[in-house]
Amino acid sequence: MKERPIVEAMQRFYENQNSSFHVPGHKHGALSELPRAFKDVMRFDYTELSGLDDYHHPEEVIAEAQDLLAKTYGAQHSYFLVNGSTVGNLAMVYATCGEGDQVLVQRNAHKSVFHALELVGAQPVFLTPQWDEATYTPSHVSLSTVAAAIDYYPDAKAIILTHPTYYGVTNSEMIETIQLAHEHGIPVLVDEAHGAHFIGKGKFPMSAIEMGADVVVQSAHKTLPALTMGSFLHINSNRVSNDRVNRYLRMLQSSSPSYLLLASLDDARHYIGTYAHEDHQQFIKSRNQFVDGLKSIPSLEVIEVDDPLKLILRVSHLTGFSLQKQLEHQGIYVELADPEQVLMILPLLKARHHFPFAEIRRKIKSAVEKCSKQQRDKVEIDYSHDIEALSTLAVSYKKLQTAENEWISFTKTTGRICTGMVIPYPPGIPLFVRGEKITTNKLKMLADYLASGATIQGEHDLSRKQLLVLKEEKE
Ligand SMILES: Cc1ncc(COP(=O)(O)O)c(C=O)c1O
Question: Does the bond joining 426 to the residue before it have cis omega, within 30 degrees of 0?
Fold first, then answer.
């Protein structure tokens, strides 16, 4: 068996020095006017040529590489995705839910999950997550909330969970939650975008695949050494049809997959598959030294979470956005900032790697010293708003398709039906979902987000302080 079938096939192709009379038009980079380093990479930007298999009908190297992927993660079937976890989430929802079907969904899901539910015209039942006091973020849905949801909605076609959260918080009740859903014949679909490294027998938190979930989607590009967009989808179930998932992946993904991406996925699978005990020990040792070093910096609060790759930094009087700016002045770019803190994703080092942790600690210290001289800009956000454990859309996706909308000042939107998503980004979890009723609490949170300098994606006109809402019908 080859170690990295796609990578090896591409290397053989390269060594043959073939002439290109096929797409892509840059002809192995020769026509490109990009800088040299880019062109060097383009030499490997192949397409589905003899010896390189067919992405949507794999029988050779892609099939071999996907088999290795399934073996590595202990799944029945696994797929390389070339359009991120986004397309994995779309495909798993399409494969399990239809128009009008009830679907249980964690309310702090990624926007791609909401988009999927809207595209299929499902009826989502939102499950409110617990609040995690350590990270000031919503985390997982409690087992009791899931039990109540199944009691009320026993005909639900699926339950969609996110595990771990963007901030690296895991769910200690995940196994029981999956078992409960299965006892009621409900498949469990897990967005594990941030957990592609969650394998390796005790080295990292357990993956939802090992815990018995039916479909699991992982962004390999987030924590493994894969190119951006490169992701995995795993199926480990007789409750979800592999053929259906495969059919939707064929429909939703490009017919011209990037081989650079596929090679990086093949390599990422090999990387995690060969992540040895010594690699893990060495990584944890250097990580812990780094964390201890950070903890000794005055005014810096360091928060550790379940996932050892994630680290949260806080300076008490400043927003995460201000801390982020100071870090960037020192050349340190973090994953995200929010009104409270910044989130770092540490590199999944192997024993052979040397990473300049000491120098990075020095730079972080300089940034924090600059922060100490800055005036307070942190806004007190009240996260304690009461939300019911279960909620539904006030207006169905079907009705929203044809409904008329209007722009109104966001201060006047309480009680109105939101028709444009409002998504603080990152982390990409919608504050307002299309079809939900707008509440005063949420508006207050939006105002706090804006006051603290957050970037808000979605369909809104917040520069003119306007939101898109359903036009009220005249009596
Ligand atoms: C929880 C979660 N799910 C899905 C996605 C989408 O992943 P991708 O960027 O691989 O499409 C993200 C992206 O940030 C995410 O945080």
Answer: yes
Clarify whether residues 236 and 291 are in a common domain.
Answer: no
Question: Which of 191-200, 358-367, 375-384 is predicted with the least confidence, judged by mean pLDDT?
Answer: 375-384
Residues 364 and 398 in one domain: no
* Rounded-to-integer distance, Cα 444 and Cα 177, Å: 33
Closest C-alpha to 390, from 151, 185, 94? 151
Look at residue 379 and tell me if it is in a domain. Answer: no
Q: Which domain holds residue 245?
A: 5-273
Q: Is 121 in the pocket of ligand 1 (CB under 6 A)?
A: no
The answer to whether residues 95 and 241 touch, using CB atoms and an 8 Å cutoff, is: yes
**C-beta 466 within 6 A of ligand 1:** no
pLDDT tens-digit series, residues 156-175: 999 999 999 999 999 999 99
Identify the band that residue 425 occupies on the pLDDT scale cut at 50, 70 and 90. Answer: confident
Distance between first and last Cα of the chain: 71
Whether 72 and 178 map to the same domain: the answer is: yes
428 CB near ligand 1 (under 6 Å)? yes
String of DSSP letters for 389-403: SEEE-SS-HHHHHH-
Nearest Cα residue to atom 10 of ligand 1: 84
Atom of ligand 1 minimally distant from the CA of 86:
11
Q: How many CA atoms lie within 13 A of 134 on its CB side?
A: 13
pLDDT at residue 207, rounded to an integer: 97
Say how many domains are in the chain: 3
CATH number, domain containing residue 52:
3.40.640.10
Whole-number pLDDT of residue 375 = 95
Report whether residue 112 contacts ligand 1, using a CB cutoff of 6 Å. yes
- Clarify whether residues 303 and 442 are in a common domain: no
